[in-house]
């Protein structure tokens, strides 16, 4: 299944750093995403763009995650000739990530 089936996203930028929030449509899917949506899988999925470290921050109170992606904007808004200097389209790219479907009831799969 695609990540977009369980969550939506917003982005923001500061210099050459991009943050992508991933917000669950339903809080019951938070634990599943916590198990499968790692910083490593986000970095691998966006490897063509992200050159730096990816850090995941967990926000269980609002069933969301914030991913901070270093060296992700081609030098930053004022230094890049990229068509998407702010990285807004990267949230759509991340929402296309293929994930394992949650178990019945929305909990994380057994290890």
UniProtKB/TrEMBL annotation:
<protein>
    <recommendedName>
        <fullName>AtuA-like ferredoxin-fold domain-containing protein</fullName>
    </recommendedName>
</protein>
<feature type="domain" description="AtuA-like ferredoxin-fold">
    <location>
        <begin position="1"/>
        <end position="98"/>
    </location>
</feature>
<dbReference type="Pfam" id="PF23544">
    <property type="entry name" value="AtuA_ferredoxin"/>
</dbReference>
<dbReference type="InterPro" id="IPR056362">
    <property type="entry name" value="AtuA-like_ferredoxin_dom"/>
</dbReference>
């Amino acid at each position: 299944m695609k990540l977009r089936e369980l969550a939506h996203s917003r982005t923001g930028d500061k210099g050459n750093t991009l943050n992508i929030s991933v917000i669950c449509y339903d809080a019951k899917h938070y634990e599943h995403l916590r198990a499968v949506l790692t910083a490593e899988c986000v970095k691998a999925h966006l490897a063509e763009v992200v050159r730096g470290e990816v850090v995941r921050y967990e926000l269980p109170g609002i069933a969301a995650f914030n991913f901070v992606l270093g060296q992700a904007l081609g030098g930053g808004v004022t230094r890049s000739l990229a068509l998407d200097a702010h990285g807004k389209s990267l949230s759509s790219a991340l929402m296309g990530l293929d994930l394992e479907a949650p178990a019945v009831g929305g909990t994380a799969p057994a290890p």
